[in-house]
Structure formats: structure tokens, C-alpha cells
Specification:
The chain is 21% helix and 24% strand. With 275 residues, the chain is of the alpha+beta class. Strands 1-2-3-4-5-6 form a 6-stranded antiparallel beta sheet, with no helix packed on it. It has a 4-stranded antiparallel beta sheet with strand order 7-8-9-10, with no helix packed on it. The protein has a 3-stranded antiparallel beta sheet with strand order 11-12-13, covered by helices on one side.
Length: 275
């Protein structure tokens, strides 16, 4: 074994690393993050600071100082820094922090282009349903028929990192921005599907990470009139109102002793927004 990591509940959150030094002795170091998820400080078992990092806005390392930094390569947004190439590894593609751009095209763009090429150009953009649909836009749009929407600016800038807004967004999968502070695959304002469904699946196949994430998934399904048990969309007359969905989610959150998160639900209920 070369090293062992203790992971936190969030994506790319490493709590500690158990590693072997150059003399063969085993030690443990601890990670400390800023609000954007960047590793800023490393400490040893005694709590002494053994490493510090500073970055440019797009992640280029401006300073890494301390004896512990030679044993760590997880830095900006918690992603892996490759010293030889000076690139970050974002799972599906590499990111160049000097230019603020990925080194290859967005996977979703490639998939849409592939589908268009395989099945012809019979796709129309559905502005009201969040995607592209084949064979015209029917009156009743089914979620299963949609292809993920690729906004025009992403075609113009297929290598762009989080739409040049690295203060508010991150891209842990290299496949699209997420707002910093999201939880799991379903929690957060307008957030669903942190993981992408496999080919032939809908977004409802994306699993919840924990009890809180399961509540958020049920809340999203409630908002959109989807029955997770029967795996079908409910007719309009049987769907709950947004207020009922919010109240239901709030009560469930309270029962898992996360009342502080219930305040988030109340906030969006008052503002009439979806969480």
C-alpha cells in the first residue's frame, strides 16, 4: 500500500491521507479547504501546519510551501494536479489552469453531435422543456424523450471551464458546472443529477447519496409530478402543488435532525422558487 485516504461526504473532499515518507515511515496529514473547495492548508498529526497553497482565480498554483506538499497532489477544487503536465484531472478530461480551459471538448457536446450524425438532423430545440427533441415538439413533452440541452455558447466555447465563473461554480466531473454548495446528486437550488444517467436511462435513475439526498430527489419528483414508485408521470389533476411539495420535504428534513436545512426549504417556499 502506497497511501490510504479518508474521504468526506462531499465530492472531492479528502479529510486525511495516511502515507509513507521517503524513509519508509508512516504518517498522516489533514486537509483544510476554503469556501470554494480548494485545499489551502495541510497539517500533521500534531496539528502543526506543514503546507500552504495559493492559486490564481482559475486554479494555477501561485504558491505551495511546506514539507507536506511533496506528499500531496490534490489541490484546486480538490482535484488532482499532475506535476509533469501541469494539468488538473477532472475525471473525463484534463484542465489547463494557465489558460482556464479544458484540453478536450465537452463530452455532452460530443454525444449530441454523435446522436445528430447517427439519426440525422431531425432534432428541434425545445425552449420550454430544457433540451432537444427529435421529430418535432409535441404538445405533451415527456422527459424521457429529451436530449440534454447544450446552450449555444457551449458550442462556441466547447473548452470553457464553468462558463468563466470559477467563483460560484465547480466542475468535478469535467461535464458541466455545478453551483458550489450543492449536496449529493439532488440537493440545492435548481440542482439535480450530479451523476449522469447511463445510456437508455432517464435522470430518475440517478441514485441518491444519503437520506438528505433522497428527500431532495423526492422533492424534485414531487415538483415535476413524477411517481418514483410507478416510474410514471402523474396526470395534472393528481399532482401536488409546489407548496405541498415544500412542506412535505421540510417535514422529512426535520425528522433527520437537519432543521438548519429546513430553513433553506422555507426560504425558497417564500420566494416561490424551486430547490
Amino acid at each position: 500500500m502506497k497511501a490510504r485516504y479518508t474521504l468526506g461526504p462531499r465530492t472531492d473532499e479528502i479529510i486525511s491521507k495516511y502515507y509513507r515518507d521517503r524513509y519508509g515511515n508512516w504518517h498522516k496529514l489533514y486537509y483544510h479547504y476554503d469556501a470554494l473547495g480548494n485545499v489551502r492548508v495541510l497539517t500533521d498529526e500534531a496539528g502543526e501546519v506543514g503546507g500552504r497553497y495559493e492559486y490564481s482565480p482559475f486554479g494555477y498554483p501561485l504558491m505551495h510551501r511546506g514539507k507536506l506538499t511533496i506528499y500531496n497532489n490534490y489541490t484546486y477544487t480538490g482535484r488532482q494536479w499532475e506535476r509533469m503536465s501541469k494539468l488538473y484531472y477532472y475525471r473525463t478530461r484534463y484542465y489547463d489552469s494557465q489558460t482556464g480551459r479544458f484540453t478536450s471538448v465537452d463530452r455532452l457536446i460530443r454525444e449530441v453531435e454523435k446522436r445528430k450524425k447517427e439519426e440525422g438532423m431531425g432534432y428541434e430545440r425545445c425552449s420550454g422543456c430544457g433540451g432537444y427533441i427529435r421529430g418535432g415538439i409535441p404538445e405533451e413533452i415527456k422527459q424521457e424523450e429529451l436530449i440534454p440541452e447544450i446552450q449555444q455558447r457551449k458550442y462556441q466555447q466547447p473548452y470553457v471551464y464553468v462558463e468563466n465563473n470559477c467563483v460560484n461554480y465547480a466542475d468535478p466531473l469535467g461535464e458541466g458546472r455545478i453551483e458550489i454548495g450543492k449536496w449529493g446528486n439532488w440537493c440545492g437550488p435548481g440542482w439535480s443529477g450530479g451523476e449522469y444517467p447511463k445510456e437508455g436511462q432517464t435522470k430518475w435513475h440517478v441514485p441518491a447519496k444519503d437520506k438528505l439526498d433522497e428527500i431532495c430527489k423526492m422533492h424534485d419528483a414531487c415538483f415535476q409530478g413524477y411517481d418514483l414508485t410507478t416510474k410514471k408521470y402523474l396526470p395534472k389533476e393528481k399532482r401536488k402543488s409546489k407548496e405541498e411539495c415544500n412542506e412535505e420535504a421540510c417535514e422529512k428534513i426535520k425528522r433527520i435532525d437537519s432543521s438548519d436545512l429546513c430553513d433553506i426549504v422555507d426560504k425558497y417556499k417564500r420566494e416561490g422558487e424551486k430547490i
